[in-house]
Amino acid sequence: GDSVTQMEGPVTLSEEAFLTINCTYTATGYPSLFWYVQYPGEGLQLLLKATKADDKGSNKGFEATYRKETTSFHLEKGSVQVSDSAVYFCALSERSGAGSYQLTFGKGTKLSVIP
Amino acid sequence: DSGVTQTPKHLITATGQRVTLRCSPRSGDLSVYWYQQSLDQGLQFLIQYYNGEERAKGNILERFSAQQFPDLHSELNLSSLELGDSALYFCASSQGPRGGVETQYFGPGTRLLVL
């Protein structure tokens, strides 16, 4: 079945440092890929998405490129801020036989940014 | 604010009891997905409804059930509760697939504690 593997955390960075969170996936077809963010005590927010190979999703300074050849969707940001401290989830969605698009999530990576 | 609402925010109950979690999707969304987030299992898909009908089931226990009403709100019923059911329960809504892609928007979650 489908699966998502993302780097284990926690990750601690200083403000303005470069961020990379690795994500690789296994899927039977051509999934859509997502990054969700969960701030402390809150629900999941969609950060960015990409729906086909070589697409780049971007939002709030974060970027991720859908790499079919390496089955990866790594999240990057050039300069992190304290407000970026959160848990980041990589996820994929692929149409199931029942016509559903349920999300399969990685285990999450906790990012802490210190001033 | 995603536009998806969930009630209650917190729920504390005892083993063996039954609870109902409620979700109201974003205006215009026909699909509702339920997910469970626990420390050991991570985020897992439970069940999906589309326009009142069950569309797909994931790792949902037989003690759990759900339904979607004509006004499109959904309820997740958890019965014969066990300590291991303590978790954060999210619902997500979407319009339905557009061009083979479906983007889900998450509610703030209901935190269930079974004592």
What attributes does this structure have?
heterodimer; A: 115 residues; mainly beta; six-stranded mixed sheet; four-stranded antiparallel sheet; 12 strands; 0% helix; globular; B: 115 residues; seven-stranded mixed sheet; 11 strands
Explain how this protein is built.
The complex is a heterodimer of chains A (115) and B (115). Helix content of chain A is 0%, strand content 50%. Chain A has strands at 3-6, 11-14, 19-21, 23-26, 32-38, 44-50, 56-59, 62-65, 75-77, 86-93, 103-105, 109-114. In chain A, strands 2, 5, 6, 10, 11 and 12 form a six-stranded mixed beta sheet that branches. In chain A, β5 and β6 (44-50) form a beta hairpin. The radius of gyration of chain A is 14 Å and the shape is globular. The mean pLDDT of chain A is 94. With 115 residues, chain B is mainly β. In chain B, a hairpin with a 3-residue loop joins β4 (31-38) and β5 (42-50). Chain B is built from no helices and eleven strands. Chain B starts with a strand and ends with a strand. Classes of the chains: A mainly beta (115), B mainly beta (115). The A-B interface holds A 32, 34, 36, 42-46, 49, 51, 89, 93, 95-96, 98-108 and B 2, 33, 35, 42-45, 48, 50, 55-56, 58, 90, 92, 94, 97, 99-109.
Secondary-structure map with pairings?
The complex is a heterodimer of chains A (115) and B (115).
Chain A: E1 3-6, E2 11-14, E3 19-21, E4 23-26, E5 32-38, E6 44-50, E7 56-59, E8 62-65, E9 75-77, E10 86-93, E11 103-105, E12 109-114
Parallel strand pairs in A: 2-12
Antiparallel strand pairs in A: 1-4, 3-9, 5-6, 5-10, 7-8, 8-9, 10-11, 10-12
Chain B: E1 5-7, E2 10-13, E3 19-24, E4 31-38, E5 42-50, E6 53-57, E7 64-68, E8 74-78, E9 87-94, E10 105-106, E11 110-114
Parallel strand pairs in B: 2-11
Antiparallel strand pairs in B: 1-3, 3-8, 4-5, 4-9, 5-6, 7-8, 9-10, 9-11
